[in-house]
Amino acid sequence: MLQAALQKVPVIRILIPFIIGIIIASYCLSGSFVVPLSLFVAAVVSYLAIFLMARRSVEASVKMRSFYYIPIFVMALSLGMAHQILSRPKEIPLSALNGSNLLGRVQQVRFRDSSQEMMVALLRSSADVPVMGTKALITTRGHNYDIQAGTLIGIKADLRLIRGTGNPCDFDFSWYMRNEGIIYSQHLPASFVSICGISHTPFTRIENFRESLRHKILNSSLSPQSQSFVIALVLGDRFFLDRGTVNAFSASGIAHLLALSGLHIGIIAFLLWFILLPLEYMNLRWLRYLLSFGVLIAFDVFSGMSPSVVRATILLGFVFLSFALRRRYAPFNALLSAALLILVFSPSALFTAGFQLSFLTVASILVFSPHIRLKSRALSYLLTLVATSFIAMVSTLMLTAYYFHTVPLLSFLTNVLVIPLFPVILLASVLFVILIAMGTDWYMLASALNWMYDALAHASGLVAEASVSHISGVSVSLAVLLLYYLMLALFAVWIAGRSWKALLAAVSCLFVMLGSWYYYNVSAPSRGVMVLNSYNSTPVFYFQNGKGYLWVNDDDEASADEFVGVHTGLLSRLRIDSVEVISGDSLFMINRGAEFVSGNYAYLGGIRFLSVGNKSELKNLGTQTGLDVDVAIISKRYHGSIQALLSQFHVSEILLSGDIYDDDLNRLVAQCDSLGVHFFPIAQRGAFVSY
Question: How many of the other CB atoms lie within 10 Å of CB of 525?
C-alpha cells in the first residue's frame, strides 16, 4: 500500500523527508552544515551504487528499483536541513554594534494608542559590523506620522535579543518573530528616530498602497465593525478586529471567514473565470488561464501571501494547467506540491498554525470526501456541503484546541448556513474596496455591507452563546495532538483499503490518546502561585480548585478580562474557571487556610510576598521594619538600593520584575551579586513558579 501511495503521489517522496529535515534542523542542529552535507554525500554515493548494481542485468534492475527511494529520501532530508539552516535570521555581534549609528529601511509601520511599531530592514552601521540582511522590530514611545514604508531611518543602536516571556503555556512571541525573520528589537522615544530619506522597493510601495486603502476604509461610511471586517476580508489584515468579534467567530466555527483562505481565492477565481468567458469563444483559452492566474498571484502579493492563500493559488494554477494541456488533474499531488513550494520559499511556515490548518483541512477533504456517495441528486449538494464542513471540523478540531484552546462543536452547521451567502459578502466587500480606492464611497453599498455584517455577527453571536456550540478552556499536549492525527491517518487507510489491521491500530491509537489526555489533565497542579513575566506590570497569580486570584500591586488598572485574554493557555492548562482581581486589604478562605493581601504585603500559597516600588519609595514602608519576607518583588517603580531594602526587611529571595528597564536591571543585579543575595531576574529566566 505504501508503494502504491508513493507511485500515485510521487511528490510525497520528497515532501515528507524535506519536512523532517526542517524539523531536525530547527530543534537539533545549531547551524553547522556538517550533518546535511554528510547526508547529501551519502545519498549521492548510495544512488550511484544502486545505479551501478542495477546495470548488471534486467533482473537486477527490477530488484533495485524500490531501493532508489532510499537515496531520494536521504537527499531530500539533507536539503530540508540545509535550507532551514540557511533561512535562519542572521545573527550579529551586539556588543560591537550597539552604540553605533544604524541606517534602516522601514518595511511596515503600525500606530498604536501611544506607541509606534516598525519592521525595519537594517542596511548599514557606522561600526565595522555587516548588518545587511538583518531585520529588527523597532518600537517607539510616541508617534512620528511622517514615517511610512520605504522611509530610511537613522537610530543609535541599542538592540536586544527578543526573548519569550517564559510564562507557563504562554504564546511564545520570540518564536513567532523568529519565524518572521526577526530576532532583535529596540525601544526608544519617537524623537530619537531621524528620517534620512526615502528608498522604495516593490514591497514597500505595495505596503503603502495597502496603508492608504486601510486609511480610506477607516474613514468611509461603513460602521467601525464593518470597516475592520472588510479590511480583514479583502486586505488580509486582522489588526483592527476586536477580541470579542474574533472570539465569537471562533466559537461558532467560522473564524476562517476573517482570514484570507482558499474559500476567498476560490470565489475570486470563479468571478474571474466568468468575467473572462468571452476569451473562450475567441479561441484564446491560454490567455484566459494566464490572466486568471496572473490576477490571483497579484492578489496574493497584495494581501500579504498567507500560506492558505498561496496554497489555493498554486492549486488553481495546477487546475488551469491541466485544463490547458487537457491532462487529468491530480488534486492530492497538487496539494503536496503546493506545500513543498511554500516550504522551499519559507521553511518556517511549517510551524505556523495557518499553514497546518490550511493543508490538513484540504488534505482531509480530499481523502475522505470521495467515499461519501448519495444516489439522490436533489440531496447531493446539501450532503456534500454538510459532509465537507464536518470533515473540515474533525480535521482541525485538535489543532484548534492545541493553538486556541477552543473546540467548536457546531461549526459544520454554521458553515452550511453561512457559506452559501458568503460569496455575496466577499464580492460586495471587494467592490467596495475597488470603489473606495477610486475615491467613491457608495453609501448604498456601505449600508448593504453594514446590514450583511450585522447579520453575520448576530448569527455567530447566537451560536457562540449556545451552551453546546463550543468547549472553551481546552488544553492538549503535543503527544495527544500527534496521536490524534495518527489515528485519523490510520482511519483513512482503513477506509481506502478496508484494512482491518489499520482499523484496529486506529482504535488502539484512540485509547492511547484518551489515556494520554487524561494523564495530561490530572497531572496539572491544582494549587500554586506564580509571579509572571510582563512588560508593563508585575502580576502575581494564585490559584486553587479552579479559581484564580490576581494581585497586581503596581497596576491600579489591572483587569481580570485582560488577564484571561492574554493567558488563555495557562488558565486552560490549570483548569481555571474564573479569575478575580484582589487588591487593598483582602482576606479569602481556601481549603488549606487563609490567603490575604494587605497593601504591599501578601500571603499566597504559603509564601510571604512583599511588593516594592508601588508608587512610593521604600521609606513609606518603614513602619514594617524587621518583617520576615520570603520573596521581595522589585518593580520598575523602585529606585532605591538592595542594601536599603535588606536593612528594613528579612528577605530570603529577591525577584526582579520583568518590567524593569535594562539599565536599572543591570544595576540591581550587580548589587545583589555584591551582597551575595539570592535573586531571580524574571526577564531573563521567565516566571517564578511555586506549586
Answer: 14
Among residues 110, 119, 121, which one has the least CA distance to residue 143? 110
pLDDT of residue 1: 47
pLDDT at residue number 528? 92
Strand boundaries in 144-202, DSSP class E: 151-156, 160-161, 182-189, 194-198
Angle made by CA atoms 234, 143, 146, in degrees to the nearest 5: 75
- The pLDDT tens digits of the residues spanning 469-515 come to 778 888 999 999 999 999 998 988 888 777 788 889 999 999 999 99
Q: Give every CB contact of residue 362 below 8 A, 6+ residues apart in sequence.
A: 262, 311, 315, 335
From the list 552, 548, 542, the residue with the least C-alpha distance to 633 is 552
Q: What is the mean pLDDT of residues 83-110?
A: 90
Q: Tell me which residue of 362, 310, 363 sits closest to 341, measured CA to CA.
A: 310
The three-state secondary structure class of 174 is helix
Report d(CA 600, CA 553) in Å as an integer: 7
Rounded to whole angstroms, the Cα distance separating 27 from 199 reads 37
CB–CB of 527/606 below 8 Å? no
The model's pTM? 0.83
| Cα 147 to Cα 136, 198, 330, 551, distances in angstroms | 16, 10, 48, 39
CA angle 463, 464, 469 (to 5 degrees): 75
DSSP at 558: -
pLDDT of residue 310: 80
- The residue assigned the cell 467596495 is 432
Residue 585: predicted pLDDT: 67
CA distance 387 to 131: 52
| Angle 117-118-123 from CA coordinates, rounded to 5° | 155
Task: Check if the beta carbon of residue 253 is closer than 8 Å to that of residue 232.
Answer: no
User: How many beta carbons lie within 10 A of that of residue 616, not counting itself?
Assistant: 12
Contacts of 345 (CB under 8 A, 6+ apart): none
| Residue at 4: amino acid letter | A
Q: Which class for 595: exposed (0-12), middle (13-18), buried (19 or more C-beta within 10 A)? A: buried
Residue 492 is classified by DSSP as H
Q: Which residue has the cell 532551514?
A: 84
Alpha carbon of residue 292 to chain centroid: 30
Distances (CA, A) of 690 to 73, 148, 531, 581, 657: 46, 46, 9, 20, 16
Element (H, E) at 631: strand 627-634
Helix (H) or strand (E) holding 50: helix 34-54
Output helix, strand, coil percentages for the chain, rounded to the nearest 5: 55, 15, 25
598 Cβ contact partners less than 8 Å away, ≥ 6 residues apart: 585, 586
In this structure, of 203-207, 282-286, 558-562, the range with the lowest mean pLDDT score is: 282-286
**What is the torsion angle, in degrees rounded to the nearest 10, for the CA atoms of residue 669, residue 670, residue 674 and residue 679?**
0
Degrees to nearest 5, angle at CA 410 with 409 and 415? 135
Mean predicted confidence (pLDDT) in 624-646? 84
Task: Return the pLDDT at 463.
Answer: 75
Gap between the Cα atoms of 1 and 321, Å rounded: 29
Q: CB count, 10 Å around CB of 63?
A: 13
Helix (H, G, I), strand (E, B) or coil at 486: helix
Mean per-residue pLDDT of the chain = 84
Predicted pLDDT of residue 380: 64
